[in-house]
Amino acid sequence: MERIPASGTLKMFELATRLEAEGKRIYHFEVGQPDFPTPEHIVEAGIEALKHGFTRYTSSRGIPPLLDGIEKHYADRGIQIDGSQNVIVTPGAKMALFQGFLSTLDPTDDVLVLSPAWPTYRNLIRTVGAKPVDVNTHPRYGLDEEELKSHCSKTVTALIINTPNNPTGGVLEKDQMKMIHDLAVDNDFVVFSDEIYEMIVYNGFKQTSMLEIDPTMEHTLAINGFSKTYAMTGWRLGFAIGNKETIDNMVRIQQNTTSCATSFVQYAGTKALNGDQSSVKMMVKAYQKRRDEITNIFNNMDGIFCINPAGAFYVFPDFSAYNLSSSTLAELILKKTGVTSTPGISFGKDYDNHLRFSYATDLSVIEEGLRVLSEYLPTLL
Ligand SMILES: Cc1ncc(COP(=O)(O)O)c(C=O)c1O
């Protein structure tokens, strides 16, 4: 456990909660979860499942209607998978990742992580004894093919990609994913493709799934979930899609750990995936408006550069001009203005000049919070 640092987001959240309890106005930008409630028809499906007595253990793989639902969801996009063989339903995407790592990685393995990256990847890789190796995409978060190639070696057995990305909101294009797959084949490693934000994309961008590039799934384990697209973070529901051997191994882990994802939650998830999608469209439209607003405000502040991201609900502005470590800057900003953020250092050692802001929060919080921030920041320059 000594290899796993405390969560940067949680540290800020705890400090913010303490200040809030003391009566300070706090503008929350630290936690990456939708501020929308879970859509009504999904909640109803969960309640109906409970009323109908779906309160027992399920198959460790997942309930057949959800496995079929996932198969159909992909078939509608032209991706052929067999729900009964290629899918495992888990309590959250995090658990899918953990099981994927446990069943694939050995303690001597190096795992490439396209960086900046969600801290959980490195922490889970370390938990199973393997070693995370950062591949930077700095300074504009574009994928650097040569940099990636230079990290491929015999000890590398996996690569993690996440598109749209947490923390930058950046996306990988189809040709980049194809290049990554070619590298995986040439160097015989597995690509863990975290696609949890795939539906939260803007201006008509369509996120390619790694499953389109690698239909046999020989070199791919795709990770996905309901938390972000359907505002279901607390329900804990995710899934992984991969070849039969990997999924069977993950099922054995699940049989001996959590047994299954919660029974009635799986019914709610089935409704989420195959039911009315208008609430998803509504939420994405709202995120897009907030994204435009927050990027615009940041880029009008002195000494800050902020990319307008193509997906997810984060911005990762560059605060190099302030010459402070990201933890010091985040804490100062929180104490002085009540604006919370996550220090860039949490996402990779070369990103200590960035802060992450989640804009899955009301437009009024964005406007008011950033107004207070823009009044304070010049005093630090
Ligand atoms: C990139 C990424 N993957 C996975 C997750 C976790 O998803 P879940 O709630 O399904 O465990 C998160 C949550 O912040 C995330 O940002």
Short description:
This protein is an alpha/beta fold and 381 residues long. 41% of the residues lie in helices and 12% in strands.
Record the SSE blueprint.
Elements: H1 8-21, H2 40-51, H3 64-75, E1 87-90, H4 93-104, E2 110-115, H5 119-127, E3 131-136, H6 145-151, E4 156-162, H7 174-187, E5 190-194, H8 210-213, E6 220-225, E7 238-241, H9 244-256, H10 263-274, H11 278-299, E8 314-315, H12 326-337, E9 342-343, E10 355-358, H13 363-376
Parallel strand pairs: 2-3, 2-4, 4-5, 5-6
Antiparallel strand pairs: 1-7, 6-7, 8-10, 9-10
Helix pairs in contact: 1-12, 2-10, 3-10, 4-5, 4-9, 11-13
Helix percentage range? 40-55%
CATH topology of the largest domain: Aspartate Aminotransferase, domain 2
Main β-sheet: number of strands, strand sense, barrel status?
7 strands, mixed
Alpha carbon gap, first and last residue: 38 Å
Rg of Cα set = 21 Å
Q: Kindly estimate the percentage of residues that lie in beta strands according to DSSP.
A: 5-15%
The CATH architecture of the largest domain can be given as: 3-Layer(aba) Sandwich
Give the helix/strand class. alpha/beta
Element-level helix/strand string: HHHEHEHEHEHEHEEHHHEHEEH
Number of helices: 13
CATH superfamily of the largest domain: Type I PLP-dependent aspartate aminotransferase-like (Major domain)
- Tell me the domain tally: 2
Any idea what the shape is? Answer: globular
